[in-house]
């Protein structure tokens, strides 16, 4: 087991509060092989509020947690379109613990899991979501994460389309008083181009982007967060950014019975972001951070320990 010291002031991914646990974020992707769909998800919770429980420690990394606390027991990944019957429950939010922070505050825990479904068929499109998320940051109601998977056979590869995969770390650094640019890492198994956009209300519920004046580059998936008073940021307030990643072919292809051009996406997956209110560093350090427009992998303060398997 390795221990890393990482400076943080931004939590990447979504959040949930008391009704359904304190959720910080997650994503899900799909790969279809040998007539079976494999769905892989990653979830991040406030430490002690996730499947690992209130006594969670670095000794639990690598363990599978299948018995969920009451606050999480009702949460389900659900198929909302394409399945027979409609609104079919697919899986709960249990996982194997893969990472754990040990900050001076509450910290976070991260886990991953995959599950299979043999009910899905090629040349069909399926939509899934995880809903009823009581978001911790500023929002008007409950949030959700939504994804859509087109399993059509591609004429360029001869196999069903695979969704993009997002690899955003559980925590990244952003400083109050300056603009931070966050590059959202993603890849596509079919070598398609991955594009990013802000989620629409039907993809994030009543807990969509609340961070003011953020900009998201569609082509490069770079997110600019101007965390300054001039752009409406309050150091005592938490904010949300909800993002959808989509795969676009580099040339016109057929996917099942559909034609997909370079401007028509095939699948989409969620990546949802929260950044809590950071405490500005003292004068000279704050000025330096502002001048350097610090990158999230080069933060300046608030060290925490992160334990990985």
Could you write a compact summary of the structure shown?
This protein is mainly β and 309 residues long.
Written account of the structure:
By secondary structure, the protein is mostly beta strands. It has one domain. Helices cover 5% and strands 43% of the residues. It contains 2 helices and 23 strands. It has helices spanning 201-204, 283-292; strands at 2-7, 10-11, 23-33, 36-46, 64-65, 77-81, 88-91, 95-102, 108-117, 125-134, 142-150, 165-166, 171-172, 178-183, 186-187, 193-198, 215-216, 222-227, 239-248, 253-255, 258-260, 268-275, 303-308. The longest helix has 10 residues, at 283-292. It is globular, with a radius of gyration of 19 Å. The N and C termini lie close together (5 Å). The model is unreliable at 1-21 and 282-305 (pLDDT under 50).
Q: What is the topological layout?
A:
Elements: E1 2-7, E2 10-11, E3 23-33, E4 36-46, E5 64-65, E6 77-81, E7 88-91, E8 95-102, E9 108-117, E10 125-134, E11 142-150, E12 165-166, E13 171-172, E14 178-183, E15 186-187, E16 193-198, H1 201-204, E17 215-216, E18 222-227, E19 239-248, E20 253-255, E21 258-260, E22 268-275, H2 283-292, E23 303-308
Antiparallel strand pairs: 1-23, 2-13, 3-4, 4-9, 5-8, 6-7, 6-10, 8-9, 8-23, 10-11, 12-15, 14-18, 16-19, 17-18, 19-22, 20-21
Q: CA-to-CA gap between the ends?
A: 5 Å
Average pLDDT score: 81
Total number of domains: 1
Q: Based on DSSP secondary structure assignment, what is the total number of beta strands?
A: 23
Pattern of helices and strands:
EEEEEEEEEEEEEEEEHEEEEEEHE
**Strand coverage percent:** 35-45%
Structural class: mainly beta
Number of helical segments? Answer: 2
Characterize the largest beta sheet: strand count, sense, and whether it forms a barrel: 7 strands, antiparallel
Low-pLDDT parts are 1-21, 282-305
Quick one: overall form? globular
Helix content: under 10%
Keywords: Signal
Region (Disordered): 267-297
Signal peptide: 1-21
């Amino acid at each position: 087991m390795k221990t890393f010291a990482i400076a943080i002031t931004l939590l990447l991914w979504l959040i949930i509060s008391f009704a359904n646990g304190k959720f910080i974020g997650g994503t899900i992707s799909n790969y279809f092989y040998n007539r079976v769909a494999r769905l892989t998800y990653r979830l991040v919770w406030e430490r002690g509020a996730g499947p690992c429980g209130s006594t969670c420690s670095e000794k639990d990394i690598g363990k599978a947690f299948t018995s969920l606390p009451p606050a999480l027991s009702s949460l389900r990944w659900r198929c909302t379109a394409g399945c027979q019957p409609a609104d079919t429950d697919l899986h709960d939010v249990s996982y194997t613990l893969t990472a754990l922070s040990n900050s001076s505050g509450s910290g976070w825990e991260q886990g991953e899991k995959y599950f299979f479904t043999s009910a899905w068929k090629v040349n069909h499109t399926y939509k899934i979501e995880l809903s009823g998320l009581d978001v911790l940051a500023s929002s008007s109601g409950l949030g959700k994460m939504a994804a859509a998977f087109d399993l059509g056979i591609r004429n360029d590869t001869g196999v069903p389309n695979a969704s993009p995969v997002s690899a955003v770390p559980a925590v990244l650094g952003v400083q109050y008083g300056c603009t931070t640019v966050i590059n959202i890492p993603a890849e596509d198994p079919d070598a398609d181009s991955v594009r990013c956009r802000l989620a629409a209300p039907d993809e994030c519920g009543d807990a969509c982007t609340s961070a003011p004046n953020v900009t998201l580059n569609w082509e490069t998936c770079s997110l600019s967060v101007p965390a300054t008073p001039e752009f409406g940021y309050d150091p005592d307030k938490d904010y949300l950014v909800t993002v959808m990643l989509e795969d676009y072919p580099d040339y016109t292809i057929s996917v099942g019975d559909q034609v997909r051009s370079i401007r028509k996406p095939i699948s989409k997956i969620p990546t949802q972001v929260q950044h809590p209110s950071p405490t500005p560093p003292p004068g000279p350090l704050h000025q330096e951070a502002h001048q350097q427009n610090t990158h999230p992998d080069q933060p300046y303060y608030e060290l925490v320990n992160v334990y990985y398997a």
